[in-house]
Amino acid sequence: xxxxxxxxxxxxxxxxxxxxxxxxxxxxxxxxxxxxxxxxxxxxxxxxxxxxxxxxxxxxxxxxxxxxxxxxxxxxxxxxxxxxxxxxxxxxxxxxxxxxxxxxxxxxxxxxxxxxxxxxxxxxxxxxxxxxxxxxxxxxxxxxxxxxxxxxxxxxxxxxxxxxxxxxxxxxxxxxxxxxxxxxxxxxxxxxxxxxxxxxxxxxxxxxxxxxxxxxxxxxxxxxxxxxxxxxxxxxxxxxxxxxxxxxxxxxxxxxxxxxxxxxxxxxxxxxxxxxxxxxxxxxxxxxxxxxxxxxxxxxxxxx
Length: 304
Prior knowledge:
This protein is mainly alpha-helical. Helix content is 73%, strand content 0%.
């Protein structure tokens, strides 16, 4: 691990993380543009994953890592790949149905599920402070989801609202399991190697799902130039953001600066409004601020 002298200056590190947050948010907005033009979810994941895989493989070869998984770690590596595949499918499926910012806010509650999963599997029991923050986040989510309107008139939120919410929460669950596996079973495996095999698993599962027709319309092509631009943009944005951050993470002092990455839902809110015309009600915006504040607090707790 780099020492303090090898870390980038904090303003530079924060600028890189903010840029990464906007690139990831833009990837999801581009995905919605592609989906609205008829692009299949599986095709989007395959396109994005192919670019990311090639970038990660190039890094592994450049750093001369050995492309191999120890025998005792192979099943955990497979599980990690399956979890990231599930997370990707559920997240993009949610983005196709509900506002991008709402989907990302729901997915970013994964630290709650991670803490509960860790406790369930014999880890540290959540503290009273954690329980209070979790309660605050849940209150914020009630506001974000505008449950009052939903319960009063379910049709007012549209037919895709409930499936979108369920898919976003499922993405958070898949991601929490992926983080647990990474930190508790694969932490000693070089990150570049782990990422290559994870992305390879995602690509194989998405291709298999498309071949078997598991997701109806999953491989549908865009219907116009707009969709093709969205598809190409999501791949480039995701591949660039993930690769740049992966290369620079050792120098970004993540123990101190990681909470900055929680800006992604904020960036998606801004970009979603500018590009897609998606706007949230005032109560939803307030709820989003509450959720983000709680998530940042949880991030800081994990670094203590």
